[in-house]
Design a protein that fits this description.
The protein is an alpha/beta fold and 229 residues long. 38% of the residues lie in helices and 19% in strands. Bound molecules: 6-chloroguanine.
Length: 229
């Protein structure tokens, strides 16, 4: 898979792209990620990427020129068509089933907005999918792009080792994970449930299913309605 990120803050992606499962997937060649700065496509001598809104009002609006030119530059070095995604709180809410769809795309281009927003003609002209990661306001699309990148990469075949794979399956199956314990058997008076020490794999599996069901019902009853969330 190929991932391009268009942003005013490429530097915030560097440590994220080196760490953990994402970093390992990149190093092993499962995915290539490139960041491009809109500012490199500014035309005036101040390298402006934003301007005051027509009609007045607070804040600044990201201009069409740098965004279209950055995107055209990235897509010019192309093998096939890309799937364009604009990160915006006005977008469709990201879910695990949508993540799974996106993980099947060969090439995603993620556009991160900032300031008060994008010039509306960016939305109209790009034919991009607009995505939000939840009902709260971020200062820019960058954290949302990192959420999307992480969720997509962990679904690429080979991104997870055997020990990690179970966690993704549990949420994909529409339920919350069961409780986990490791050594020691007792910590500050809190003990490990006896069944987990029993060695009875059938009982353990049944206990975990039950815990998972109870947790989902009490904390996230909305998940029980959907096959995938
Ligand atoms: Cl994608 N962008 C911003 N700025 N805020 C958000 C968001 C995106 N998703 C949730 N809040």
């Amino acid at each position: 898979m190929r991932l391009d990120v268009l942003t005013l803050f490429p530097e915030v992606f560097a440590p994220f792209l080196e760490a953990s499962i994402v970093g390992r997937a990149i190093r092993s060649g499962l995915v290539t990620v490139s960041c491009t700065n809109f500012r490199d496509f500014a035309r005036d001598r101040h390298r402006s990427v934003d301007d005051r809104p027509f009609g007045g009002g607070p804040g600044m609006v990201l201009m069409c020129g740098p965004v279209f030119e950055a995107l055209e530059h990235v897509e010019a070095r192309a093998a096939g068509p890309s799937k364009r995604i604009v990160l915006t709180p006005q977008g469709r809410r990201l879910t695990q089933s949508l993540v799974a769809e996106l993980a099947r795309e060969p090439w995603l281009v993620l556009l991160c907005g900032h300031y008060e927003g994008f010039d509306e003609r960016i939305r109209l002209g790009l034919e991009a999918m607009e995505l939000s990661i939840g009902d709260y306001v971020l200062s820019g699309g960058e954290p949302a792009a990192m959420v999307l990148i992480d969720a997509v990469i962990r679904l690429l075949p080979g991104a997870l080792g055997d020990e990690e794979s179970a966690v993704s399956e549990s949420f994909t199956a529409g339920a919350l994970e069961y409780p986990q314990y490791t050594r020691p058997r007792e910590f500050r008076g809190m003990t490990v449930p006896e069944v987990l020490l029993s060695g009875d794999h059938q009982r353990i599996a049944e206990w975990r299913r039950q815990q998972s069901r109870e947790r989902t019902a009490s904390r996230r009853p909305d998940l029980l309605d959907n096959e995938m969330s």
